[in-house]
Write a structure and sequence with these properties.
Shape: globular
CATH superfamily: Gcn5-related N-acetyltransferase (GNAT)
CATH topology: Aminopeptidase
Strand content: 35-45%
Number of domains: 1
Strand order of the largest sheet: 1-2-3-4-5-6-7-9-8
Distance between the termini: 25 Å
CATH class: Alpha Beta
Largest sheet: 9 strands, mixed
């Protein structure tokens, strides 16, 4: 898989060549990345619902999402919430048609790059379905008690995510 990236201050795109398992020839896929606005909320909510992710608190962070578009269609998103020196990575979703294409990895990597650029010391997330996905980025499972105190005030920790959700942490200080 190869990728070419372009950025300006508001929009970025990646040109990626990949060969999905069900195609014999390689395809070139253009993905447009941009930050969200409140007008994107209906599409974000629809994508999160299709991925069975929680919607609690999403409206309050309408301007904190990174969005990925293919053919002018929202196909991926993720958001960062700020809690002092800790970022909460939440609402990572990829449309069903794009799963397995590497888009989720690209979105998470871009969010981690944003967290580093903003000076966060660590990134925390909660998941009930993707415990096996996040370790490739350096996340490790921790107990809820071991999560940074500041992030425990988030809606995800207080009410939205079940107690059975796995809490994961990535330390950015040592990078």
């Amino acid at each position: 898989m190869s990728a070419t990236h372009h950025k300006n201050e508001n929009i970025a795109f990646a040109l990626r060549t990949y060969s999905p398992y069900h195609f014999r020839r390689r395809q070139i896929v253009l993905t447009l990345y941009r930050n969200s606005t409140s007008s994107d909320m209906p599409d974000i909510i629809a994508l999160l619902k299709s991925a069975d992710l929680i919607l609690d608190g999403v409206e309050e962070i309408a301007d904190r999402f990174l969005l990925a578009f293919r053919d002018e269609r929202l196909v991926g998103c993720a958001a960062l919430e700020s809690y002092n020196s800790t970022a909460l990575l939440r609402s990572v979703a990829v449309s069903e048609t794009e799963r397995g294409s590497g888009l989720g990895q690209e979105i998470v990597q871009r969010m981690l790059d944003q967290a580093r650029a903003k000076g966060f010391e660590n990134v925390v997330l909660l998941t009930s379905t993707a415990e096996g996905f996040f370790p490739r980025f350096g996340f490790r499972a921790i107990t809820r008690e071991d999560a940074p105190a500041s992030v425990k005030s988030s809606i995800e920790f207080r009410a939205a995510c079940p107690e059975s959700a796995t809490v994961m942490l990535k330390d950015l200080k040592g990078e």
